[in-house]
């Protein structure tokens, strides 16, 4: 279950606060996956108590978008901590889908990869199994295929420790890179933080999901929760 | 686990004005750790605003249903407390669960002297078990009677601990921001979650 709250001392009108929280949630807490399961209790509350003396922020205030974006970045930090503490997790993985024709499609594809048990076990096993990533992209529940054209698709692993080469290309314009540097792939997959980059090449929208690997420990924890 | 704790749990922080938090080990959790927390808004110069996003799971737990009702009734205004408990999710507990959740909120509203519902509720833990209301009630009373509320770092860290289940570290984030008009403000957030995590809240 995900529970949380965010509080602030700004005065924010209730409808504006609701819009801010929804926007932030759609780009943070709704973009994380540990195991693909949705709880009956997931809740994020936000309270603004107005203890700071300033004009109330409404949707028309010049500060509205700035505060909304600050709340979003803040919510992302909090949401990412949940993934870092995923049951049995040894890796924190950012799945970034860019150059999509719509935000919704980018998000759907990122979610599909993030929820794939086979992708997650491969990440745990440090196996550069890009075929599973492609498979998860292929069954993503897109309403149309406008965003997904196989000859424009690029998939890479990205190192997050400043080592070079930072990007290891797995698929370039739909063509698998058969001579992948397996040693470099193993180095990247051994990192506790890494990124899977998917470039759809069909537009300008992007979305990110944050996920983790799936380890033996996850089964140990959840085979004995209720008792 | 200790490495994760060291890497992700802050050692100090600045917190927003006008909020106080308290927590207690009520005994719902078998291991005697913190499992009940209350946040209250103490600022009276402005009627607070509140908003929430909730699970879209068809089976919504009692605290979710109750909190939705409170927010609708109050139109997102005048919400001055949040109560959280861990160890029991009060989920799939039917009318009795709703009654228990309502009682939790009512106990706090009474302590705060609220004339209408002003408390949101969150519960986490095992599904399909009834809340041990004797322990929860005593715990709520204890926080108020002992005046366990504080606005210091440890009080905030403890409330973040009080909603942990299989979490290996409490999740507490706090930051100061400056708006373009020069006004400074603070955001503080806490979260819990380690498993059953793929929210789609609305």
Structure description:
The complex is a heterodimer of chains A (227) and B (202). Chain A is α/β, with parallel strands linked by helices and 227 residues long. Helices cover 35% and strands 23% of the residues of chain A. Chain A has 7 helices and 9 strands. In chain A, strands 2-9-4-8-5-6-7 form a 7-stranded mixed β-sheet, with helices on both faces. Chain B has 5 helices and 7 strands. In chain B, the strands form 2 sheets. A 4-stranded mixed β-sheet of chain B has the order 1-2-4-5, with helices on both faces. Chain B has a two-stranded antiparallel ribbon with strand order 6-7. In chain B, helix 2 crosses helix 3 and helix 3 packs parallel to helix 4. The two termini of chain B are 32 Å apart. The model of chain B has no long low-confidence stretch (mean pLDDT 97). At the A-B interface, strand 1, helix 1, strand 2, strand 3 and helix 2 of A face strand 3, helix 2, strand 5, strand 6 and strand 7 of B.
